[in-house]
């Protein structure tokens, strides 16, 4: 009887494990030129992820084991205009076929010829593109020679035809970034950039791996990814976030005296997606001690706050999946703490905090 009982237990365990297994799907397709010829070796990747592949001789590609969620799929090939398409994986495989157009040759407004000029522009680019955190300062661009610079009065512009290769020794990632546009205006001290990244794990010793686990968690805590995941799980306060409605737009900021119930910010689309739609600006503060304090509700009409180092001004209209990825956004405003985060502090969408940090997933 004992072997039979053991077999039944094993069977029940197998059923239990398979029942909670994550359902995944594939994204596949075919890439052609404008003349109808298949394009071989085009790079296909999911922006902000660790998933990438290239097309075969027939221009075909497949990305397997894709979880339900929203993704920006990128198609890139030197000499062709990159293609970006938002895809939502819900309950079936996704097919994406597209045609790539030859990229027109762009002439820079001012040719950066002198070596001293290029070194100066590269230094400015690194500062405002990578960021100024400890993680960012440790990063190294492995192929800076591919960056094309131009200037227009007080504005520095840059782009790349191919991937920038960035090594981040603090977080243990090699980041490939397709920079479509970068500009820095020194008179307004304003930075704008757009592009897409794909992540690879760096090889490391057990000691390095341990350090990366710690540093990644530090980068994750208080991040926008952390907040959106906590919002989806309905545990923002447990995770250390306080969310206030802003009553003005300029510092010092006026906010509602009591944190708002974040469940009112969203509507649940289904078990994997939520719709974030709130007409007012929010001030999101990451402070575990304040969030844990059992403070009595205030009767004041408003409260004046200074912008905290870990406080973010936030406004969004869009759909968000359970991993904190934003899809179909109609409006997005990010300022202060989250707004200062740059490439050097980014984590891939696959990142999951260690189990020792309960409730962070």
From TrEMBL:
It comes from the Bacteria. The keyword Protease applies. GO terms for molecular function: carboxypeptidase activity. It holds the Pfam family CarbopepD_reg_2. Residues 1-21 form the signal peptide. Keywords: Carboxypeptidase, Hydrolase, Protease, Signal. InterPro entries: CarboxyPept-like_regulatory (IPR008969). The keyword Protease applies. This is Carboxypeptidase-like regulatory domain-containing protein. It comes from Mucilaginibacter myungsuensis. The lineage of its organism: Bacteria, Pseudomonadati, Bacteroidota, Sphingobacteriia, Sphingobacteriales.
């Amino acid at each position: 009887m004992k072997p039979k009982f053991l077999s039944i237990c094993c069977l029940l365990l197998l059923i239990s494990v398979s029942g909670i297994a994550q359902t995944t799907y594939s994204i596949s397709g075919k890439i052609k030129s404008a003349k109808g010829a298949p394009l071989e070796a085009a790079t296909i990747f999911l922006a902000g992820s660790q998933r990438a592949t290239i097309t075969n001789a027939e221009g075909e590609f497949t990305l397997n084991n894709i979880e339900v969620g929203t993704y920006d799929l990128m198609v890139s090939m030197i000499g062709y205009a990159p293609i970006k398409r938002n895809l939502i994986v819900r309950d079936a495989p996704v097919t994406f076929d597209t045609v790539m157009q030859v990229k027109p040759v762009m002439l820079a407004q001012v040719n950066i010829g002198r070596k001293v000029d290029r070194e100066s522009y590269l230094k400015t680019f690194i500062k405002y593109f990578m960021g100024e955190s400890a993680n960012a300062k440790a990063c190294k661009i492995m192929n800076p020679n591919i960056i094309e610079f131009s200037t227009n009065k007080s504005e520095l512009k840059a782009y790349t035809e191919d991937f920038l290769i960035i090594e981040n020794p603090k977080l243990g990632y090699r980041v490939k970034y397709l920079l479509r546009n970068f500009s820095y205006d020194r008179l307004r001290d304003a930075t704008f950039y757009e592009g897409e990244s794909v992540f690879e794990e760096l090889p490391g010793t057990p000691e390095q791996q341990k350090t990366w686990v710690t540093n990644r968690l530090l980068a994750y805590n208080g991040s926008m990814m952390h907040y959106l995941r906590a919002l989806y799980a309905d545990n923002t306060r447990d995770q250390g976030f306080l969310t206030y409605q802003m009553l003005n737009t300029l510092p010092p900021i006026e906010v509602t005296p009591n944190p708002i119930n974040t469940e009112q910010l969203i509507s649940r689309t289904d078990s994997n997606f939520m719709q974030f739609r709130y007409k007012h600006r929010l001030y999101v503060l990451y402070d575990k001690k304040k969030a844990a304090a059992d403070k009595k509700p205030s009767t004041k009409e408003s409260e004046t706050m200074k912008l905290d180092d870990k406080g973010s001004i936030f406004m969004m209209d869009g759909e968000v999946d359970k991993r904190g990825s934003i899809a179909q956004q109609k409006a997005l405003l990010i300022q202060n703490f989250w707004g200062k985060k740059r490439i050097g502090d980014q984590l891939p969408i696959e990142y999951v905090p260690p189990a020792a940090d309960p409730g962070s997933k």
